[in-house]
Amino acid sequence: MEEGLFHPAVQAWFRSCFSSGPTPVQRQAWPVIRSGGHALLAAPTGSGKTLAAFLAVIDRLVRDGEVFGLQDRTSVLYISPLKALSNDIHKNLEVPLAGIHAQLGALSPLQIRAAVRTGDTPAAERARMRRQPPHILVTTPESLYILLTSESGRDMLSTVQTVIVDELHAVAGNKRGAHLALSLERLAALCGRPLSRIGISATQKPMSVMARFLLGERDEHCEMIDTGFMRERDLALELPRSPLQPVMAGEVWTEIHDRLAELAGQHRTTLVFVNTRRLAERVAHHLAERLGEQAVTAHHGSLAREHRLQAEQRLKAGQLKVLVATASLELGIDIGDIDLVCQLGSPRRIATLLQRVGRSGHGVDAVPKGRLFPLSRDELVECVALLDAVRRGELDAIRPQGAALDVLAQQIVAEVATGEQDLDALFALVRRAFPYASLSRSDFDAVVGMLADGFATRRGRRSAWLHLDRVNGRVRARRSARLV
To answer: Is the pLDDT of residue 223 over 70?
Structure first.
């Protein structure tokens, strides 16, 4: 770490925890983020991308606090696609914040606060945030949308200076991405000043398109920091002794379960990914028969939150030999050191394979280890092609979601519910979101007209949510708008 780049207390904490120094992505990102610029960080899993984004903004809070005093306002907004990842990031933030606070000691009474605001946040904690806003707010795209609609939420968000969007590739290609892009533009309009935007992802291509998605349609530079996803990996195919068929026979499943149990016995912790929740339960059951009930459990979205958290904690503590999961554990939730990742069935995409295998060897110098189990002859061909693509350094092209009009309608109602809007200004706001850059005025007017006139469904006619003043080009909300 260069002398003078960070506050002495921040530098001292980093050096005490990371004697090997900053990683390449950290070294390149910190000067850009410290200057208030936009940055898109693409680096392998376990390369310190999250700390690359956070440490520079924490440093700015420390420096500003020493000069002006830390005010009770939110300066940094961190957005993650999963509630579990939001909670995990909050826990991981506590370590540097506590360490830096200890380095400051009695010389400076600064206390930087971080808080999580998701659907799981208790009412008492939400009330506490309204009374004393956190300096760093961790949330999800859906909770950001809700905060932008409430008066107290808008008050808290109006002081944001930096937005960090984690796991950008997980939302850019679907309607959640279109929804988030509109929320970011609404946030920028609320703040009334340029926001520093930082995107984080392990796998993304093309970088230029992802940078435009992050920034929206504005003539500003985004520093694209790509330290490459090429790293040493231990990848191999696992084939049963019996020939693969179009549909798996019972004896082949027995061979696969036996091989999984054998591999689990050779490693301290094993994470098994499957493509369906039903298969997760079935595989967990068969492995529990071989390894013991206390050594194996399942993890997927249909399970109670308490069960999922307990499974994550047991795995992190080394109390589980095997955790069988769906995509619920694909993203960067901290589940400790994983020795081996097994993928049952084709992961379908290069990025998915890299993301899942990257859950093992989750460290700067560690080597991810993965085994692919194709479940049919077609999947065997897919898995061979995926491994070949990884070895040649290829990536899937992520295509951002186009102008989804149902998402647009929802966001228009939410924005108008906060106050009367000028239609031209509202259209300009929508067009600044990358997925809606080519939205025609006629389509925009049609959506507004539908919301103002009501529309027919199979269940009957739906009432209107907006009042449209076509003469003056303005729109305001009806009473029912806040219920959407």
So the answer is: yes
**CA-to-CA distance for 161 and 193, rounded, in angstroms?**
8
Q: Is the pLDDT of residue 484 over 60?
A: no
pLDDT above 60: residue 39: yes
Let me know if residue 410 belongs to a domain.
yes
Q: 295: which 2 tokens?
A: 């050594």
For residues 86 and 89, give the distance between their C-alpha atoms in angstroms, rounded to a whole number: 5
The residue among 202, 226, 250 that closes a domain is 226
Q: What is the Cα–Cα distance from 362 to 371, expressed in whole angstroms?
A: 16
Examine the domain organization and report whether 240 and 333 are in the same domain: yes
Helices (H), 158-295: 169-172, 175-191, 207-215, 250-266, 277-291
Q: Which of 209, 226, 243 finishes a domain?
A: 226
Q: Are residues 185 and 39 in the same domain?
A: yes
| Sequence-ordered list of residues with C-beta below 8 angstroms from that of 185, at least 6 positions apart, any chain | 216, 429, 430, 432, 433
* Exposure b/e, 348-362, CB count within 10 A at least 16 = b: eebbbbbbbbbbbbb
CA dist., res. 302 & res. 280, Å (int): 11
The pLDDT value recorded for residue 460 is 55
Compute the C-alpha angle 296/297/302, nearest 5°.
165
Cα separation, 360 vs 111, in Å, equals 35
Which residues, including other chains, have CB under 8 Å from residue 197's CB and lie 6 or more apart? 38, 39, 162, 163, 165, 184, 214, 215, 222
Residue type, 191: C
In Å, how far from its chain's centre is CA 71?
A: 28
Instruction: Calculate the CA dihedral of residues 447, 449, 453, 456 and round it to 10 degrees.
Output: -40
Sign of CA dihedral 114, 118, 120, 121: positive
For residue 424, the enclosing domain spans: 405-483
Burial grade of 35 (CB within 10 A; 0-12, 13-18, 19 or more) = exposed
Residue with tokens 């806040």: 482
User: How does residue 481 score in pLDDT terms, banded at 50, 70 and 90?
Assistant: low
| CA–CA dist 476, 421 (Å, integer) | 6
Q: Is residue 2 part of a domain?
A: no
CA distance between the termini of the chain: 49
Q: In which region does residue 216 sit, left (phi positive, over 0), alpha (psi from -120 to 50) or beta (all else)?
A: left
Q: How many structural domains does the chain have?
A: 3
